[in-house]
C-alpha cells in the first residue's frame, strides 16, 4: 500500500493578526520614562499659627548638606561626614550614623533636611533617597 | 489526412509544416499549453514572526497599566533615586535654565512661565491660587482632591532656585511637594 503524503502546515495568518494587534496596543500603552517621586511634607519644617511649645526632651534630627560635607545632628551631638573626592556624598558613613540613630530611637522616623544654596539638586535627592532607604522616610526639606 | 478532389489532384490539408530539423519541441509544447497557470507564491513568514515576537516581548517590558504620568521637559536630566514611590498626575513645576514653568493636566489651569531669577513669580502665584480655588470647590462638593504639587529640575540646578519655588508654594498653601526622580536601573544599585 502506498504511503499517503501528509502536508502539515500551520496556518500563520491568525497568529500574525494577533501579534499585529498586540504590538499596536502595547505601543499605545508603553511607558518610556520611569518617573518616580520623593515626597516631602513641608508643614513639619514651617511655623504654624497653632504652634505648640517645643518639648525640651524631644530630640530633633537634622541633616545639613554643605558643599564639602554633610552634618548630621541628633539633639546636641553633631557628626560630620566629609564628601569624597569630586563632591560625592559618602553614603556608607552616612548610613552608619543613620543606623546608629535608629538603634537609639527606633520609634522615630522624622528628620529635617537642610542645604546650603550652592548644593546641587542631585546631592539633595541623593541624601533624601539615602534617608528614605535607611529607616527615615519622613523627611522635611527646610527652605531656609 | 483529408483527401479532396479527384484522384488526379490530391489536396492535402496543411498541417504542422516545420520540418523536424527545425522543430523546437519543448517551445512548441509550452506555447500550446493553456495560458492560465497556477502561481504558488508563499511568503517566508518565519522572520516576520520572529520580529513580532521580539517586539511584543520588548513592549511588554515597558507596559504600564497606569500610563505615563507626565512628560519630562527635554532640558531636564532628572536625578536618580532607588526608594521613591510612583508619581501621580498633579500640577507640575519645572525648573530649567530657561525659566520656571507651571503646567497642569487640568484645562482650566493655563501653562505659565517666569524667569529663573524672578523672586515674586506673579503668574505662577496667580495660577496656584486658581488651583487652590478649584481644590476648595472640589472639597465643597464632597470630593477629596490631592493637594500636592510635582516639582522637577535638572540634577545640576542649584538648590537656591528649588528653595525659592518651595517658598512660593508653601506661602500659597501647598505643603506637599513631590520631587520627580528617575528610577535607578536594577544593575546600577
Write the layout of secondary structure elements.
The complex is a heterodimer of chains A (144) and B (189).
Chain A lengths: L12 H17 L5 E7 L19 E5 L3 E6 L2 E6 L8 H14 L5 E6 L5 H13 L4 E4 L3
Parallel strand pairs in A: 2-5, 5-6
Antiparallel strand pairs in A: 2-3, 3-4
Chain B lengths: L2 E2 L6 E2 L12 H8 L13 H16 L18 E2 L3 E2 L5 E5 L2 E5 L8 E3 L7 H19 L7 E6 L5 H13 L4 E8 L6
Question: What would your notes on this structure say?
Answer:
The complex is a heterodimer of chains A (144) and B (189). By secondary structure, chain A is of the alpha/beta class. A five-stranded mixed sheet of chain A has the order 4-3-2-5-6, with helices on one face. The mean pLDDT of chain A is 85. Chain B has 189 residues and is α/β, with parallel strands linked by helices. Chain B has a domain of 109 residues: 2-Layer Sandwich (Nucleotidyltransferase, domain 5). Helices cover 30% and strands 19% of the residues of chain B. Chain B has a six-stranded mixed sheet, covered by helices on one side. A two-stranded antiparallel sheet of chain B has the order 1-2. Chain B starts with a strand and ends in a 6-residue tail after the last strand. The interface between A and B is large, with 43 and 56 residues.
Amino acid at each position: 500500500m502506498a504511503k499517503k503524503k501528509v502536508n502539515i502546515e500551520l496556518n500563520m495568518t491568525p497568529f500574525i493578526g494577533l501579534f499585529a494587534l498586540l504590538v499596536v496596543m502595547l505601543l499605545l500603552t508603553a511607558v518610556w520614562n520611569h518617573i518616580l517621586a520623593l515626597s516631602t511634607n513641608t508643614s513639619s519644617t514651617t511655623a504654624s499659627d497653632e504652634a505648640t511649645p517645643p518639648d525640651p526632651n524631644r530630640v530633633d534630627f537634622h541633616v545639613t548638606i554643605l558643599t564639602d560635607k554633610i552634618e548630621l545632628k541628633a539633639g546636641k551631638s553633631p557628626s560630620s561626614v566629609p564628601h569624597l573626592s569630586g563632591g560625592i556624598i559618602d553614603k556608607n558613613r552616612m548610613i552608619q550614623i543613620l543606623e546608629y540613630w535608629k538603634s537609639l530611637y527606633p520609634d522615630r522616623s522624622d528628620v529635617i533636611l537642610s542645604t546650603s544654596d550652592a548644593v546641587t539638586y542631585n546631592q539633595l535627592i541623593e541624601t533624601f533617597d539615602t534617608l528614605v532607604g535607611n529607616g527615615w522616610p519622613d523627611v522635611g526639606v527646610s527652605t531656609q | 489526412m483529408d483527401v479532396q478532389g479527384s484522384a488526379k489532384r490530391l489536396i492535402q490539408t496543411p498541417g504542422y509544416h516545420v520540418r523536424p530539423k527545425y522543430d523546437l519541441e519543448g517551445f512548441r509544447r509550452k506555447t500550446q499549453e493553456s495560458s492560465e497557470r497556477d502561481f504558488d507564491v508563499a511568503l517566508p513568514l518565519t522572520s516576520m514572526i520572529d520580529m513580532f515576537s521580539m517586539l511584543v516581548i520588548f513592549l511588554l517590558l515597558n507596559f504600564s497599566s497606569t500610563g505615563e504620568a507626565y512628560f519630562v521637559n527635554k532640558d531636564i536630566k532628572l536625578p536618580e533615586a532607588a526608594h521613591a514611590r510612583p508619581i501621580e498626575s498633579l500640577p507640575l513645576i519645572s525648573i530649567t535654565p530657561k525659566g520656571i514653568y507651571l503646567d497642569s493636566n487640568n484645562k482650566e489651569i493655563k501653562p505659565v512661565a517666569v524667569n529663573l531669577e524672578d523672586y515674586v513669580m506673579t503668574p505662577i502665584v496667580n495660577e496656584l491660587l486658581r488651583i487652590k480655588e478649584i481644590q476648595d470647590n472640589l472639597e465643597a462638593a464632597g470630593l477629596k482632591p490631592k493637594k500636592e504639587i510635582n516639582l522637577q529640575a535638572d540634577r545640576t540646578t542649584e538648590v537656591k532656585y528649588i528653595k525659592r519655588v518651595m517658598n512660593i508654594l508653601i506661602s500659597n498653601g501647598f505643603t506637599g511637594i513631590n520631587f520627580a526622580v528617575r528610577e535607578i536601573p536594577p544593575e546600577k544599585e
